[in-house]
# Entry
Amino acid sequence: MNLDKLKDAEAQFLQLYPLGFDDPEMAKIGKKHQMSQRIEQCQSAFAELEFNKPHIIVDNMIKQVSRSSMVSMFEKPKFRDWAKSLPGGDVDRLSEALYEQLHGNQQQGFDAMLDLLRQQKLAKWSLMTILPNYVKPDDEVFVKPTTAKGVIAHFELPDLVYKPQPSWSFYAEYRAQILAMKQHVDPTLQRSNAAFCGFLMMSMM
# Structure
């Protein structure tokens, strides 16, 4: 990463918002995303012990994707209609894929989710990463294409080439580099990975 650019971005951001994400102006922006509500609801709905009821898991996936401010209005109804139409076996597979992503073999879950979504041309970065981002906001990252491409270019992240088709290799490396960058900024910018990525996005505007 280009640490000088990151520190410059931090200085400029804190000059505008001295309290970081605790600044009143940033709090106003944060309200529209309802992050605390999404995190609380998803951590409850997708707790490990909840996965013995696949149909409820899939229903909750639909609800949380539909409520997310970070998923495109075009993708929400497509995901909803697809998930609601799934036969029983695919309901089980979708629930199992999310379980592995959150609580088991993460790469296996990612690839299983990707295979299911790809069948209906729904393999989008937003749908692949939004729920893990809510359940584990300090460990996982939400991949927004425009932000990811901008961050990679602007902050000169090595060994990363963004592609529209999601892949585990890109996700794992992008997450590792985002987490490494996060350690170099003021604690007021580290509220969650989504907040930190929001700071990176705003710094490039």
User: Anything to note?
Assistant: The first helix runs from residue 3 to 16. The chain has a mean pLDDT of 90. DSSP finds eleven helices and no strands in the chain.
